[in-house]
Amino acid sequence: MEEKLKSLWDLMKEVHDDLSQSHEEILKHNKRLKKLTEMNCTENQIVLNVGGVKFTTQRNVLTSAKCDDSMLFALGSGWFETEEEKREADSEGKPIELFIDRDGSYFSMILNWLRDPSSSSGVGGG
Fold first, then answer.
1. Of 29, 48, 64, 124, which is the most buried if we count CB atoms within 10 A?
2. How far apart are CA 72 and CA 65, in angstroms?
3. How far apart are alpha carbons 27 and 96 in whole angstroms?
4. What is the rounded average pLDDT of the residues 87-115?
5. Which of 58, 63, 64 minimizes the C-alpha distance to 46?
6. Which residues on adjacent β-strands are paired with residue 97?
């Protein structure tokens, strides 16, 4: 009887250890997920004010392979942002907003082209 109790105790301890390890992994995963979610909400977003029309997008859209030698790539990479702008946006929990002195009427087509890598319509006569 004593041996069965010891065996049962060992099994319960093993299950407890497994659950504790799984719990720790879940906590780590939730922490990473929260960080990614926060990044997607603020750090990874950028607002482009094109001639008074505001467009919000992800930085990776602007830094895509389609425009790696363009001004949009440089804007998306943060090259033009001052430390003061970054601190101000971070303290307010808002994405950086940059102004582009151009007509915003057609910019949505350019942005949609960058968002959909398989698309060639709307830009370059595709």
1. 48
2. 11
3. 30
4. 85
5. 58
6. 47
